[in-house]
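ARCHIVE CARD
Drawer: 12
Card no.: 0347
Subject: one protein chain, sequence and derived structure
Cross-reference: see card 0346
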Amino acid sequence: MRKINKTLYLRYLITALLISLGFLSSCMLYPSPEKPTLPPSLKEEISPTLLLSESITLEVPIIQPGELYTPVGLLQGESLLVYSSPSADAPTIDSIPATSINIKISGEPQIHGNTAWILADYNQIQGWVDLNHLAVQKGELPEDLIALGQLVLAALQSYDYNLLADLVNPDHCLRFSPYSYLAENNLIFCPEEVGNLIASDEKYTWGEYDGIGNPIIMTFPEYHQEFVYDSNYINPDTVGFNVEVSSGNAINNIADIYPGGVMIEYYFSGFDPQYGGMDWRSIRLVLIQDNHTWYLAAIIHGEWTI
């Protein structure tokens, strides 16, 4: 049998021990990567079904006692379904058209599944509806104007400026204003131009940034994202039917520019409680009548200004 050199064997043991210690220390210096987490901004954009490990928090809209409500967040042709009890599994007893106004609600919201339900009363229709499809209503307008406003929002949400072009009067054209006050330097496009805006890479000067005065130089797709459909206005907190909802120090001069025009404002009261409502946003649509037909005349972005 071959004899083992004890000195050499000890050297092997010491070397193996040092190698092991080196490996352990390297593990301590370079830990295995942790499971990545999504930033809050991305979590808002991804369907909750993809975030299986994340807890889903249902946001219940704040009830405004004594207020009237109008349907929001419905697709074209949809109605607000009325259920016999606060559950989508309950029988439907009727429906409320998307252009309805003066809906009354009562009681406290009832949570079932991922939906907040509220007891609604409309034209002798009483039952439970999805609270997230109701917005506080200010003022009143005829159904055809409400439907026109909803059609404009649907076009803006889907970037369908060809549809929007069909809603613009060829003589008055369409004004874009980044802030509530309508200025002389607002850009105005006629129907044949409107349909091509969303695909254009041409840079325009849209006005000046509030507070700093720097020019707003953007392509139309960039302007659309920052000063047109920068929030989900198809499902707002409040809708003002020819009534100003937002507040700020900007003068509302719509009546001076469009006498006889009608305004619909879709408004969010704010997104982050720490700002106390100063992060409100809105979009105002100005509608004008020509030869007994109503057209879209202006799209006005609203936010807090200095």
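Annotation on reverse: Residues 14 and 171 are 92 Å apart (CA to CA). The radius of gyration is 29 Å.
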